[in-house]
Structure formats: C-alpha cells, structure tokens
Amino acid sequence: MATEAAPMDEKAKRMRDLLSSFYAPDPSISTGGSSINASFDNINSTSFDADQYMDLMIKKSNLEVLLQRHVQMAAEIKNLDTDLQMLVYENYNKFISATDTIKRMKSNIFGMEGNMDQLLQKIMSVQSRSDGVNTSLFEKREHIEKLHRTRNLLRKVQFIYDLPARLQKCIKSEGYGDAVRFYTGAMPILKVYGDTSFQDCRRASEEAIEIIIKNLQTKLFSDSESIQARAEAAVLLKQLDVPVDSLKAKLLEKLEQSLDGLQIKPEEASKLAEHNDSSKDAESNNQGPDKIHEDAVRGFSEAMRAYREIFPDSEERLCKLARALTTMHFENMEVYIRKRVSAADFLGIFRIIWEDVVLMDEVLPEAALSDLSAEAAQVTLKQFVARTFSNLQQDISDTLLKFDINQKEVVDGEILKVVLEDSRKAVLQGTADLFQDFLQLLDEDTGIFLKMKDLFIGWIQKGFQDFFRSLEAHFLALSGKTSSSNETEGLMEGKSCEKIHAGLILVLAQLSVFIEQKVIPRITEEIAASFSGGNSQAYENGPAFIPGELCRVFHAASEKLLQHYIDTRTQKISIVLRKRFKTPNWVKHKEPREVHMFVDMFLQQLEEVGKEVKQILPQGTFRKHKRSDSNGSNTTTSSRSNTLHNDKMARSNSQRARSQLFETHLAKLFKQKVEIFTKVEFTQESVVTTTVKLCLKSLQEYVRLQTFNRSGFQQIQLDIQFLKAPLKETVEDEAAIDFLLDEVIVAASERCLDVIPLEPPILDKLIQAKLAKSKEHNNNNNNNTVSSS
After folding, report:
1. 541 phi, psi to nearest 5 deg
2. Which domain holds residue 740?
3. Which of 244, 407, 535, 625 sits in a 20 to 30 Å window from 346, CA-based?
4. Each residue of 129-174: pLDDT tens digit?
5. Where is there biased composition of kind Low complexity (predicted)?
C-alpha cells in the first residue's frame, strides 16, 4: 500500500501545480515556486537554471545515468502534456455547461416583471377591502369586547359570592385541596374589596378556612392517616400561610417512625417474593403484598418530596431517613438468606428493594442511594453465594448421616451401597441445581446486577474452590481423621466421631474418588461454558477455581480415608487380639484341646470387612501371589505346614526343638525377601489383604510381649495353623501371609520356656474337629434362617 500511495501523491501534487499555474496570475503563488531558496536541481522551482542544472548533471553523472534521466524526463514531459490537455478539455466542458445554464435562466425569467405587477395590484385591492371591513365593524367589536369583560367580572363576583358555599361543600367532602385552591384564587379580590362590597363573603370564607386549617392540622398529626396524606396536609397549610416550621421536628419524627412499617421483614420476605414472581404472570394483582408495599414506599417518597418543599433545610435529615431505610432493607435481606432461600425468592426480594431505591432516588438524588445500594448488594449477593454452597455441603452431610448404620445392617444388607449412591446423587444434583440458580441470577437484567456480573462470576469460581476445600476438610472431620470444627459438629447433629461406623469412612473415601474423577471435571466444563472470565477483585484473597489442585486434594483425601478405614478396622480387631493375649496366664496354660474361640472372632471381623468393601469397592485384577512348592503345599490341611514345621513336629525333645529354631533363623537369612506392606489400592482384595497384614503384625507384637510354657506355645501353633487356610482364601498375597504367620510361630517359640511343637497327627486331628464343628454350626444357622423365612 505504501508503494502505491507514493505515485498517487506525486500525481496529485503535479495536478495541483498545473491548476495553480493555470489560474494564478502571479507565478510566485504556485506551490512549486513557494520556496525562494530552492536548490539548483529542483526543476519545478521558479529560480530553476537549466544551464547550471546541466553542468551539475554532467559533473556528477556518467553516460548511463544521463541516458536514464533523459528517458525519465521524456516520459514526464509526455505525462505533463497529457494532463494539461485533459485539464483544458475539462474546463472547456464546464464553460459550455455554464453558458447553457445562463441561457436557460434568461428564457425562464422572460415576462416575470408583468406577472409581478399584476400580483402587486391584487394585493393592494385585498388590503383596501380589508381596511373597509375593519372600519365598518370597529364599533361592534369594541362593544363585544366590553360585554365580554363585563361578563368575566360578573363571573368573578359570582365566584366570590359563591365562595362560602363552595368551601362548605369541600369541608363535607374533605376536598381540602380544592378548597385551598378556591380560597387562594379569591384572595386578591378579597384583599382589595373585602372590607366594603364583599365583607360578608370574606367573613364567611375565613370562618370556613379556619375549620379547614383545624382539620388539616388534625390530619397532619393523626397516626391513622398515611404518610402521603400528612404530606399533602402540610403543603396545603403552607399554601394558606399557616406557619409550619414549628411542626418540622414532629413531622420528621413521625416520618422516621413510619420506617418500621416499610421494612421488608424476614418473616414476610417469602410471601413478598412469591407474590412478586406470580404477579409477573398475572394481570390483576392489585391487592397483593408487593403492591401494598409499593404503595407504602411510594407514599413515603411523596412525603419526602413534600417535606423537602415545605422545609428546605430538612434535606440532610431526609437523606438520612432514605439511606436508613435502604440499609435496613439489605440488613433484613442478610437475615433472610441465612435460611435456605431459592434464587427465585432472592431475586424477588431484590427486585422489590431495587424498586424502592429507584422511587426514593427520584425524590432525593442527593442521598446517593444507588451507590449505597450497589455496595450493600455486593455484600448481600456474596453472602447468598456463600450460603448456597454451605447449604449444598449441609445436604451432602445429611445424606451421609441420615441412615442409622448399625452392625447388622452392614453385614446383612447393602446399606453402605445405598448411602454411597445417595451421596453421589446429592453431589451431582446439588451442583446442577447450583448452576441453575446461578444462571438465573446471571440472566437478571436489573441494572445493579449487570454492574456486578464480573464480580458475581468471580465469586462463583472462588465459591466452588472454597466449597470443595471445605467439603474435603468436612469428610476428614466426619471420619475422625481430624478434629471437627463447630460447624462440622453442628452438621453431625451431636454425633461424635466415635459413633460413626467404619463403613462410613469407606463411603467417604469412595465418594472422594468420585468427586475427583467425575464431579470436578464436570464443574470445570460448566464454569468454562457459562461462568468464564470474572473480576480478579472477587478472589483477591485466594485463588480462583483451580481444578488440578482440587483433584490433587481429593486424591490425597481418598487415600487418607481409605488408610483410616483400614486403621480403624485394624484397631477394632487388635482389641480382640489384645484381650486374647492379656487375659490368660500363658506360663500355666493347659494342654490345647481345640482351636481357641478368638480365631472365630478374628475371622468374623475379617468377614465384616469383606462384606463392607464388596458394597463399596470394585474387584481387583490382581492374581494371587502364592509361595513356591519348596515352601509348602496347599492341597490338604496337614500339608499346609511348611517343611520346617514338619521337621519340628518329628522331634520329641527340647534339644532337637532348639536346634530346629536355630535352623529356622538360619533359613530366614537365606529366604527370598517378601514385601509385606505395599500401597493400598481401591479394590476389595487390596483393602482386605492390607487389613489382614496389619492384624497379623499386631498379633506378632502381642506374642512377643508374653512368656509361654509348652502348652501355651502349642495353643498358638494350633490357632495359627488353623488360620492359614481361611486367610489364604481371603487375601491376594499368600506369600506375605505365610511369612507373617511363620513370624508369629517364630516369635512364640522365642518366648517359650520349653519349645516342643505338637505332632502332625494331633495337629491335624484338632483342626479337622474344628472344621467339622464350624460346618455343623453353619448348617444349623442356615436351617434356622430357612425356617424363619
């Protein structure tokens, strides 16, 4: 574009120079010759010297440059000739057109002078006839005007005579405004002729006016009258020249007392909001509460307008009253939204408040009610957003705690699964309802809402960030992982953390995973679609919505809660183990007769864990880690003992047993290292396996704290041998379980005074007897269940 503009500028400049040289009589006026001190090589200058220019060109340039300059100048000369020729043709056409126009004008105005003379004669004739008519009608017109003036005077006289009767009629009908208007209209005549011609009329009128003044004063201080009626009475009294300045304090005090009746009280706000919404669809709602409130505020505004005219120095106090009413509106609004309020109801009340502000702002713009309302509206809307998120957290908490979870329901039914599903629905539906309410607020076309749009979007983003952080902290507090705050205690309605079932902790862990994987991505999409942007001032004290950070928070919370569930279950089982080992005197323990009942209790606790995780967690894809054949066979109960234990049972004296223990310790040094505690996964097998590992580790520690005689050691050997089969069926890592069970036996042997294991036949016999007894017990339970059903 720059390369094309340069030639156009040069052409335009050349055309201007041609026109200037053509029309200007003095060559110095031309733009090309405006400079007196032009250089030698400026060919367009008036002081151009061809000889000097040629000498300069010959000195500075070679032959090739001179030839190029010759060709260039020849082209320029040709262009100039062409332009000049076109300019002459264009001017010639214009001259011809001007000549034709002058000829047409001469032909058109030919004969116009005669027509103008005729028109002048007609105008003079009309004027003469008009003067004749005016002269003949002058006397009659004067008479008519005189009669009209007399008629008007008689009307005024008649009005003065009828004034007392008119005033009496106004008193009866309480039309005090008309009465004051009639009296003030007759005052100029009564002042001039009231002592002579209209003395009786003036006296009767003044008596009626005194009655009107008393009635107006009574009306002014009557509590039953509306504010607008009082203001009208004050205006009428001032028109009657009654001094009302002494009444200013009382009138303004009455106006201030009326503020209480104009407030939107929290207990009445719902009715106003509902009627405001329904009145938009209904055509006739003249007596609704919102209409009554609007009329009351309108009367208050008119009263302020009247008092401002009556008492010009009361403007400051009236402004304070208007600002006080606006402030009370928003304070009551803040109280109203402390309970659960829908977005529709919130908007309904907000519209009513804004209408009140507009009415008062028209009367008292000096009060700056719009600015005050904008500041208060920001606070109120921000509190509503925060309260909405708090209500959602309350709903989620109520869903989690609404079921009275007891042990039987968890074992026999699927109560945990129901709680988890309801909690997921509460989170999804709650956030969806939140977005619907916020969209309704965002679409509001009230002027004050449009100004707060960016701030509102920022509050929503910040609100979701704070909500999920608070929800994560609430989950941890509910589980007892952290100390609960006053808010959490209130949400739990007096339930202590100790009374929270362990299964609920598992529900919280899985719900945290659901929020991380499903809810937060969905919230992110909704915010990007409808609530993007926002004002940075809305979250100046903290970050906006950061989904990556929240996902990390809930991922960490889910792991904490899952581990806390395992710890809680392990602690409960450890209580059973601690009672088992602290109650008997192991040094005086009797010869084992059967598997101890603590084994049944231990397996029962593990069975409960299994049923809980089946309701909440998915199955894993891991294969069981079994020991190699060199560590033992798994086909029969007797063959489940490892080779080292079989050798122990074959020996019959303590010397051989001690030798075998030495071999056991030596074998442990060369045995392949088994990884016992691995990362807990969100699968049924992983949770159960980790729980079993921790329980066996606790069992090992309890064993190390006791001292056993031969019978006590044999009882431990029997119990551990019986546990191997059911535990291996439950867990996924058989190698680690075998290792931990062996550790328990080794720990017991180390604390035994006389290590002599049970012989394999006796061990197998006792285990088979326990299995048969357990089978018979299960059959009886099944029969009882069938008969009861």
Report:
1. -95, 5
2. 584-619+668-787
3. 535
4. 888 888 888 888 888 888 888 888 778 777 777 778 888 888 888 7
5. 630-644
